[in-house]
Every structure is written in C-alpha cells, then in structure tokens.
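hi! just following up on the protien thing from before. the input was this:
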Amino acid sequence: MASERTAIINGTWMDFEMRERFERAQLEAEERMMETFFSYASRWIETRTNAQGKKLSQGVKDDYFRYIKSDRLSYWADYALCAITVADVREWYSDTIQDGKLTSMARSYSMMKSVMETAVEDGIIPTNPCKVRGGGNTKTGKRLIPQPMPSLKRTLVHCRVSTFVWLLLLLPAHFDSVKSLRYEPPMSMFILIAADL
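and the predicted 3d structure came back as:
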C-alpha cells in the first residue's frame, strides 16, 4: 500500500491493466534486444520490399538466404543484435577479406549493413555497427576493355544468344536483378545487327 501511495505522489501510478501492458511491452522489448542476427535477418528477408514497395521475388529471397547462411554471415548467426559492436564488425571484416573473394565479401557486408540499419529503424539497436569505410564496394583489379565495334559486329552477327544475355547487354540492370528473372523463352533469339554499325 505504501508503494502505491508513493507511485501516486510521484505521478508514476498505473492501474492494473495499464501496468500489465507496460510490463508486457518491456518484456517484448527485452526479447527483441536479445534476438539473434540470423532470426532477425530471416524475418527481414521475408518482410523486405523492393523500391516499388512490392515483396521481393523468390529468387532474390533465395539469394539473400544463401548470403546469411554463407560462411561469412553465418559467423553472426547466434549473436544477439545488441551484442554486435563496431569493433567486432571491423575485426570480422578484416579477417574475412583475407580470402581474396572481394565481390562476395562486399555483397555479404552490404546485406549485413542493410539488416542492421533496419534494426536501428525498428528501435532494436541504437546505432548501426557496420561502419567499415568502403566495405560494400569492391575493386577486383580486373579491367574490362570493350571490343572495337567491327570486332563486336563480327562476334554478334548470326549468333544464338539467350534472352538473359540480351538483357545484360541492352539494359542497365544489375546482374543479380537479371539473374532473378525466371522467364525462359521457348527458343534462343537470333541477333541481327544492322549493316551500318
């Protein structure tokens, strides 16, 4: 009874229903803070939308699940989101990048950074621990030199090329976006190049 009077005087008194809701909300917040990276990332993949606000295609979801189950991101699978620190991420990045698979590392890091940014937006963690400068960028050292136009013309005339290759050649699309398309044409297309190329 004395604690109730003190709560009334301090202005913190709540009736039974309100106190029960408050305690339930506190418990849910504690559970969210202890959620592991793997479970949160899995939920993130299922609820993620693309730039148009639509659910991700199954191909993109499969790629994302492959990333979080990969050797790189599976390192964080059992870590609680709130336990991942900037120093831990920096050390993990430094150790993992040693294998030389730069593109794979950049994709994994970018995904982790996006997942953690959403956790910040959801109020689960205060700041994003993924702060490695240039971690999501990669330079493999391989340089592509385009063929001169006559050489390209000889190569493409009367070649059978799949729709996938057409999309990669003609559209400014990201490789993963084109790869996730599931349409298979009934037959390959013939490339006909105009003579005035």
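Residues 185-197 have pLDDT under 50 and may be disordered.
Residues 34-121 form a domain with the DNA polymerase; domain 1 fold (CATH 1.10.150).
cheers
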